[in-house]
Design brief:
39% of the residues lie in helices and 14% in strands. By secondary structure, it is an alpha+beta fold. It folds into two domains: 84 residues, no CATH class; 91 residues, no CATH class. The protein has a two-stranded antiparallel sheet. A hairpin with a 2-residue loop joins β1 and β2. The protein is globular, with a radius of gyration of 24 Å. Bound molecules: zinc ion (2 copies). One zinc ion (ZN) binds next to α7.
């Protein structure tokens, strides 16, 4: 009888309730006050983040003393387990494929080609797709034309394009930076 009633109870529970039950031990682990409890792994910390707010990591490598002086040349700790939560803008694999078909696999700013640089086995087919008008600058879902709204950049140029928070460098601006740096 107990088993039957137990089965009845569990069968009426919603998927959300079942999922909550499944993660309860994990949540308890996260909420525990113990700094280091499971298999020598430090209790993870939740931080908020988003795909479009990638930082250079410089701020985290600079620690301040009590007097406010920056300690730039001392060793520091890394490796703490951190769980990120946040939002990201949905991207379409189909549009990415169309962008690659149209723009090719060489960086539009510096002409870097992954297959040429790393060989076919490792580099074939790799390039990063860049939105000429950042998704974060447009509210909500909108039409994207892979030919005019997207382009392709190597990882270096792509990172440089987004390096300054709130600013997205154009391909032309990237080219100018490269030419200026080379001419010096
Ligand atoms: Zn490039
Ligand atoms: Zn981009």
């Amino acid at each position: 009888m107990e088993n039957q009633s137990g089965q009845r109870r569990s069968s009426t529970r919603s998927p959300a309730a079942l999922a909550t039950t499944a993660i309860m031990p994990f949540l308890a682990f996260l909420n525990s006050d113990s700094p280091c409890t499971r298999n020598g792994v430090t209790r993870p910390t939740w931080v908020r983040g988003s795909r479009d707010s990638e930082s250079s990591g410089l701020s985290s490598s600079i620690t301040k003393t009590k007097t406010g002086n920056r300690k730039l040349n001392t060793p520091g700790k890394e490796g703490k387990l951190v769980l990120r939560y946040g939002s990201k803008y949905e991207r379409s694999p189909r549009l990415r494929k169309l962008a690659l078909q149209h723009h090719g696999l060489s960086c539009k700013a510096c002409a870097f080609n992954f297959a040429k640089a790393y060989g076919q086995q490792l580099g074939a087919g790799y390039i990063e797709v860049h939105h000429l008008r950042p998704l974060s600058s447009v509210r909500g879902e909108h039409q994207i034309d892979p030919k005019t709204d997207l382009t392709v950049l190597c990882s270096n140029c792509h990172r440089m394009a987004h390096r300054r928070t709130g600013i997205c460098l154009s391909v032309e601006a990237l080219r100018r930076h490269l030419l200026t740096a080379k001419s010096r």
